[in-house]
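=== RUN LOG ===
request id: a7f3
mode: sequence -> structure
chains: 1
length: 366
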Amino acid sequence: MSETDDRIGSDRPLGAAPTDIANPELRKEIQRAIVWVSVVGLAMLAVYIAQPLLVIFGAMVFAAMLDGGARLIGRVLKIPRGLRIGLVLLLAIGFLVWLSIFAGTQITQEAAELPALVTSQVNLLLNWLQDQGFAIRHEDVQQVAGTLMSGVGTITKAIGGFLGGITTLVLVLIIGIYVALEPRLYERGVAWMLPSERRSDFFIVASRMAATMRRLMAGRVLGMVVEGIFTWLMLSLYDVPMAALLGILTGLLAFIPNIGAVVSGVLMVLVGFSGGVDTGVYTVFVYFAVQTIDGYVIIPLIAKKTVDLAPALVLGAQLIMGILFGVVGLFLADPLMAMIKVVLERRSERAEAEEQLAKGAEPDGA
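=== RESULT ===
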């Protein structure tokens, strides 16, 4: 094309585009349709990437634990944040090494014997119930148990390739460490992608989320340590079988509210009655003592002051997350509900502020 043609073409108006819609009502409806299609598309995308999102959220939980430990150390040692994060990691690794050296062989043997012991105790319980006149058949119980295990196995196989292996754990650790080292960097990165008028509100929500998560994780870790050590010591004093293993399981399951306490209690009582009636009654006493300390001392001291979630709400979230994502979902259900609560509380504050502002502006407008 010549220089003249280029100049003439630049002076001429382009005219209406073939995609322009002259009818304003039709244009508005199409815009609404695009919004709904985008919402549905994002929802479908969230379903497909739910597993990676869960891994990222697990990394955020781990980062909150590292951040809380670093802040606690910072009250004593005035050293750079990176060194404090490294010190927290070294302490955690040191604890795992000590645990493996202290009771590694014993725990492994007890863990191998635990399924058979629990099965035998369940059979004894079923026989006792039958003697009392309850119409319970072993075949029915085994069939129900097999169905449940089959369902759990199906879910586990479906997500096990991403959530169940060492790769997932490594991803959680690496992402969590990076976020804990420079949390402000990632916070600013997310805020940069938001509209400018939304950024201040995002920083407020992010700050509250971080504080809530730190307090929640502090309560969880403290509860795990106290329950695990107390259970181990109390069971060891009475020579209850598998005291060390039961202490570790009780400590780990303390991370899962409601369900964890029930599971650890059932295991503790079943193992206790394998050593006799007196031992079984003693394990019941230990279980209630542990739960009393956790419910009336640890939770009110740390977690409940910051995250006061209704038990039924948490249990419902655990059931849903457990069905969708297995054990990992159970572990992350409570932190997820806490974060959702923070967002809803902030949204409620904004709505109330806007309502008060509108009421105050009415007289001036009149």
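=== NOTES ===
The chain has 13 helices and no strands.
Confidence is low (pLDDT under 50) at residues 1-10, 144-164.
=== END ===
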